[in-house]
Amino acid sequence: MNVCIIGTGYVGLVTGACFAEFGVQVVCADKDTDKIAALERGEIPIYEPGLDAIVARNLRERRLSFTTDTAAAVQSALVVFIAVQTPTKTDGTTDLTAIEAVAREIGRNMDGYKVVVTKSTVPVGTSYQVKKWIDEEQATAGTSHRFSVGSNPEFLREGAAIGDFMRPDRVVIGADDGEAIAILRDLYRPLYLIETPFVITNIATAELIKYAANSFLAVKISFINEMANLCEEIGGDVHAIARGIGLDRRIGSKFLHPGPGFGGSCFPKDTRSAATFARQAGQRLEIVEAVIRVNERQRDRMVEKITRALGGDARGKAVAVLGLSFKPETDDMRDAPSVDILQKLQQRGATIRAFDPVAMTNAARELPDVTLCKNEYEACENADALVLMTEWNQFRMLDLERVRTLLREPVVVDLRNVYDPAAMRKAGFRYDSVGRC
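^ that's the sequence the OP posted. Answer follows.
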């Protein structure tokens, strides 16, 4: 089976490489000539563990190729995946400009039956818009090739995307005709053989499943952050609470980790988009709207926590920050809590010295006034406080004596609860964390 992936961002590149690993013939198309040239050389534009090896192997075996010739890629394929970015506009709606452009290009280059599948996260009803745009282009061109549309949302976690694709919790296929469902089932047959659950449904439901999943996970994160804030007021331990409720199989222990709030390319965008299109449909998602507010407040709360640790005034203070990406094992700085928190500290007069194992290039763009250091210990030199922002593994066993010597003041604010409060205080630090006394 020949597959075309339009868009070589995070989702498109991982999807294309993993389908090629299954033995499928995959062409990934993108209009960015520099990116395509780099990919053809085996240079990966994102940090994702294991992806470089899969791309290199499948380039070598000629199962995977990259092109700027979208027309040829579409014409060579039976299944065409749309995997372009769908950013949120300032009013909360989803920008479908790239989706429309791709759909129209597909319509102009139809040469036979194809299944056109939306992989990007889009509001409910977008796949029918895709069908409309393709129909319009075919009418303009005087052609009428038959095609199907479908929705196949992705559930890839940055830093664990290869495993999530190869061993997923489920595969969701949304289509309105049996032929498209059969083709997509066949494409995913390697996963069916390892007994991966398949959810076969209509298009609208498939589109909504992605929003429902991300919104629910965001609810769990914001819920445990509110519990952590309450714990700080009453002297409770949020980790014990998370364990106490997480052992209930109806709740589960995942995503019950307190911190500075969620970030990244999915949760902030998807919760805002879900809330917006639900309002437009006349059905407000009150819980999701509350989650968005809680997440925004949590970042402000972290700014206050750090300011208190600096003696109540950040002016003239130097803050060492370890971790800048929104989570470990990624270089993604999109909507990372670090950006809001550090910019607000700078507005209060603090200077920032920071280090991240892989996100330094992106951080330089997002935080141009932050001093980026070569390692975690250089960041600590002559700082008035150390802030643990992202829980990279290499920050879990710091040489604490060395850190204490490098800091001007032995102050640590642990926004990810990496260290034990009693042990840190015994080591001579004034230590604060999230939801623990």
